[in-house]
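Hi support team,

I submitted a single chain yesterday and got back a structure, but I'm not sure I'm reading the token output correctly. Could someone confirm the output below corresponds to the sequence I sent? I've pasted both exactly as they appear in my results page.

Thanks,
R.
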Amino acid sequence: MPHNTKYIFISGGVLSGLGKGTVSASLCYLLKSHGFKVVPVKCENYLNLDAGLINPIEHGDPFLCEDGAETDMDLGTYERFLDINLSMENFITMGQIYKTVIDKERNFFYKGEDVEAIPHVTDEIIQRIKKVGDKNHADIVVIELGGTAGEYQNALYYEASRIMKLKYGDTVVHVHVSYLPTPPHLGEPKTKPTQLSVKLLNSMGIQPDFIVARADRMIDTRRMDRFALFCNVVPEHIISSPDVPNVYELPLIFNKQQFSEKILKLLHLPAKKLELSAWKKLVNLIQSPKKTKVNIAVVGKYFASGEYHLTDSYASLIEAINHAGWHSQVAVKIKQVNSEKINPQNVAESLQDCQGIIVPIGWGPRGVDGMIEAIHYARVHKIPYLGLCFGMQLAVVEFARNVAHLVDANTTEVNPKTKYPVVYIIPEQKRNLKLRAYGGTMRLGRWECRIKPDTLAYKIYNNYNIYERHRHRYEFNDAYASTLTKAGLIISGLSVKENLVEIIELSPQDHPFFMGTQGHPEYKSRPLNPHPIFMEFVKACTQALRSVES
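Hi R., thanks for writing in. Yes, this is the structure output for that exact sequence:
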């Protein structure tokens, strides 16, 4: 018997980057807190099958799921707010849809019909949305539509929304998130851009049931009434989403406006009493004064975009650091350092005020020299260091060069002809790479690792067997394990199935905190449950600060 699932579509207007993902996640959290099974879905416009081969500068940090799905960063927002693990079924791209439809056509699935955008493409979209609801026995599926209203790339998603409303009536609700600019010379939020955005929706046969008004402040009653009149939405269904110091405040702001209760009433679902005590405690924790302040440098290659500086390229990492800071009662200032601008002459100046250094994920040779300089600086000056994926591999390179005296050691990703390939691509992956099957050459998703006792890794995890998400294709070269361990490198974690090196570290006698991991703990950190690696790293940074002050 099919589950009686309800559907909420969330679209955006006026401009991108409004925070539709945060609005969607906040609404999902409130609906879940009412006791409903809520499943989020993100619909992306691009023709890529997933986000794995997209440059992070182009579309932000691809979020990695347990099943290895490389998805949009909004899925990370959903996971953090809902404290659940998502998968590829929660992520739809137009590339997936077109490929499926074309594959079906080639297999004579349509029995000789002429295959068209409507109904065949829209049917495929609807089928995927309904499938994720049925498979998860969801009470409510919340579908975030990528892009903004009026873009030709996402028109078929909107058509699917319209068709579902036509077919399923009051089981479908449409929420439109739109921007209200406040020109400084006028001093009041202007609704005209959103009025035009709603008219675009109307022209597609969609009348939004709710408008979430993104602005620099709460919308007052006078403007709300006028706003509602021109957009044909009752005033109670205009929901304010003001700028906030921290996005985790948003569910509480929505709750004060009874957003979830109003949605549930429209869907004919009972509004059970909300339990928000844990979330309120989190917000109080974030807002509470912090006596200790530390600077942590993230040395990466994906910050620069023309003349602008981006943060979305490392969104999950920044979140994970903040989670640990809040729960440690430490005010963490993240210094974003472009590795392309670091050299032996300026590395000390770039990092001297930092109590911790992180080198995150990366691909290819660009900016590598600066990363290695930062790692060398952290090791020599005994500054807490955490290497994530590429940062682990380059830590091995730096150690091999400067401690094990393997001059010019490198990863074959950077120098395929290096005399000492301490990091390399294993043979089966190499065969795929020669075929240019880039998406099939990586270890992706959840992998089991066995931790060695009496190591920093064991102290952190307090467990011999752990699981982390992976997204890499280059591995530690076992041919150099003996040489490097004799020089003082500790291999503290090995994959259970393949015996590949997962975690490296230095002895506490040699360094207060020096660790590299092939896994990506940043993707598993949650605001209510920070990842232990980041908790221990922030603790080490705090101790480093105190030792300097004393």
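A quick pointer for reading it: The two ends are 68 Å apart (CA to CA). Let us know if anything else looks off.

Best,
Support desk
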